[in-house]
Structure formats: structure tokens, C-alpha cells
Amino acid sequence: MNIKELIEISHQQALNSGFWGEICKCKKPRPFELGRLCIKCEKPIFGKKRNISELLMLIVTELAEGCEALREGHRQDKAIYDYYKGEVIKSEKLAKSRWVKDTFEDELADAVIRITDLCGAENIDLDWQIKKKLEFNRNRPMKHNKKF
After folding, report:
1. Is the pTM of this model over 0.90?
2. Integer Cα distance of 105 and 15 in angstroms
């Protein structure tokens, strides 16, 4: 999966889950139709406009949950307790092969999903932005001339 596909999937799942309000099912939404109503069903074509500051704080919240999981030692590769199912995983090998909710890695994934959902709503080409930022950073001085 590439970044553009991740953005499309993340945002479509958020739309389908109602995070952007009721949406039109009559046709495939396009970002430039944000807030417009469908002629057939009179529902928003692409969902409602949301407060971007609120969405950014939800991303920060996922990162804070990641920090808490890290503080508590909840890592995917060391999980011996499946918090989602509420059961102890006996074997370390089995623990490493299963996805476990509320781990550091799970919370990082949540943050990326929220970021890509926002990019989908705002029609941001994150792939292009990341490439340009990496090019810019390649020529910056060590630690960007900071102590840390």
C-alpha cells in the first residue's frame, strides 16, 4: 500500500464510520465537493467540515496514548496479555505473531490513520509533501544547529 492509497482508505473508513457526519451513498465523493448536498438524497456529498485544530489534537491524543503504552511496557513484540480479548498469551512466539490493541505500535498506527484521514479531507498530497521535506532536511546541518 502506498501513501495515496492509505489516505484514500483511511478517509473512506472515517466517512463510512460517521466521523464526518451522514454522507451521500448515491455517488463516490470527491474532495472538492466538501459540504455540497446531493441532488437525489439531500445528504452532504463528502461529509461535513470539521475543526482542523480539533483533528490535530486527536492526533496528539493518539501520540500521548502511545507514550503511556510505552511507559507501561505495552509493546507489540513483548505483549503477553491481549488487552483487546482480555486473555493471557502463553507463548512469546505467539505474542509476537498476533496484533495486540493498546500497544505503543498500535497507537502510532492510530496517529498515522488520523493524519491520513485529515489529508484525505483536506486533499493534501502527503506523499509529495514528505518527499519535499526529506529533500529539504537532507541539506540541513547536524541537529539543525540545535543542542538536541
Report:
1. no
2. 24
